[in-house]
Automatic annotation (TrEMBL):
It comes from the Eukaryota. Keywords: Metal-binding, Nucleus, Zinc, Zinc-finger. This is Cip1-interacting zinc finger protein-like. PROSITE patterns: ZF_MATRIN. It is found in: Nucleus. One of its GO terms (molecular function) is nucleic acid binding. One of its GO terms (cellular component) is nucleus. The gene is LOC103371517. Residues 35-66 form the Matrin-type domain.
C-alpha cells in the first residue's frame, strides 16, 4: 500500500527522467524558527532583529504608510 521513497543519487536532476518516488533537492528543505514581517514579507531569526531592528527601518515605515492609505481608500469604496 505504501510506496517506498528513494533519494536521488544526485542533487542535480539534469539529464534524468522525473521519478515521482525519488526526492530531489531535499537539502533545500530546512527546519526554521523565527519571525516574519507580513507587511514587508521578510523573515528574521530573532525577535530583536524583527521588532527592535526591522520595525525601525525606513522601508518598514513606508510599507506601513502604504498599507494605511490602502485601507483608508478601501473603506471609502464600501457601498
Amino acid at each position: 500500500m505504501y510506496d517506498v521513497l528513494q533519494t536521488a543519487t544526485s542533487e542535480d536532476p539534469a539529464g534524468s527522467e522525473y521519478d515521482p518516488h525519488a526526492m530531489y533537492g531535499s537539502s533545500f528543505v530546512v527546519p526554521v524558527c523565527g519571525f516574519v514581517c507580513r507587511l514587508c514579507n521578510k523573515f528574521f531569526y530573532t525577535e530583536t532583529a524583527a521588532r527592535h531592528t526591522h520595525c525601525r527601518t525606513h522601508t518598514h515605515y513606508l510599507n506601513l504608510q502604504r498599507r494605511g492609505r490602502r485601507e483608508e481608500s478601501n473603506e471609502g469604496d464600501v457601498t
